[in-house]
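A quick aside before the break. I want you to see a complete sequence-to-structure record at least once, exactly as it would be stored in a machine-readable document. Don't worry about memorizing anything.
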Amino acid sequence: MSSTPPRVAAARHPGGQDRQRYLRQVCDLLWPSPATVTLGNQAPGRAGAKGGGRAAETEFILLLGMRRPRLLIPAAAGAGAAAVRGYGQPGSRTARLGARALSLALASGLGGTVLRSRIRVHAPPGTDTIESFLQDALGRDILLSMYLSPARANRKPVLQLLSPRGQPVGFAKIGTSPLTRALVQAERDALTRLGRAGLSDVTVPQVLHYGEWRGKNVLVLSALPVWLRRRPVGGARLDAAMSSVASVGGLRREALAAGSYWQQLTGRLAAADESADRDTLLGALDTLSARAGNARLVLGSWHGDWTPWNMASTSGGLLVWDWERFTDGVPVGFDALHYRLQRDVVPGRREPRAAAAGCIEDAPQALAAFGLGASEARTTGILYLADLATRYLADRQAQAGAILGAPGAWLIPAITDQVSRL
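That is the input. The structure line, written in tokens, reads:
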């Protein structure tokens, strides 16, 4: 954010305070002074953007309104419809159908006249806004849209970029804090490396631009063809893709307690803020080292956040995005365990603590395709949960208000229980 106070005045509404506050912060960041932003329930005005030698005027529609802001989309009918389609494509069939219905309404012009929550941006000539930066970087006109994500330590603006006609151009990620700047840099490095790796089972975005804007790093990625016809993703196909990623930097085997992964994991945990959760996890890892320190594990690479919503199985192959957590030198099988755990803790599916315990208990079956025996798989399951808990503690997810951000409530109890059984 700039050093000046936020310049967006919003009506007061009960509920949704965090997203409203974040919306104000993002507006202040994307359209700094002397640009001005007006937010509220208004009659439709300009659709899209007009510039030239005059001040640029841009209008957005805010879905689902001021009380529960979720999506910021261009007011221009075609671009707004395309933005909604883009956000709906990676989701479930129900989400895609809902996005399609809203997209059709916007394309017809009907939705734009009914949806009255608007954001209007006025930028005098020469103002350094995110649009002007991205247009210069890409050498073309673009419109942007944005999903307002829930609170978490790694929350940052992620912009969907569209042509004035609504064709997908790509996505831009903006690092706004030490953590998110590091993650944006890491994703650039990972995608550059993966682009040279020649993966046959996975398609990843291409880096279109990487640079700095107003002290923040900006990564622009190509749009993956999520609009292709979907096909079911079978377990064998998913395992093969994860194995391909695991082998990117080669595989090696090492003893747990004397190995590089153990040193990296315990070092990260020791560097986290002092807390009861950290101390409990350190104690569990000490016990694990004493009881299973001679176990030999196969190490490779992992995506770091491979979930059903960070991929799409299409007629053109498996598309996978969000590579900011890509890491080398971790036990093979972490991606498979993460995919299952994150799928299981979707609200309404399984109680988080039970899902964490099940992650370890089911590890022998889940990791059989990776060539792991039962004992090695269970140890890998414990290490995966410990790695995830360490990430949450190091990133201070609980303090940021992230859902499930406190590992002591679900991850660490599962770890300590399983270690006590070794």
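Two observations worth writing down. Residues 1-15 have pLDDT under 50 and may be disordered. Residues 1-13+57-122 form one domain. We'll return to this after the break.
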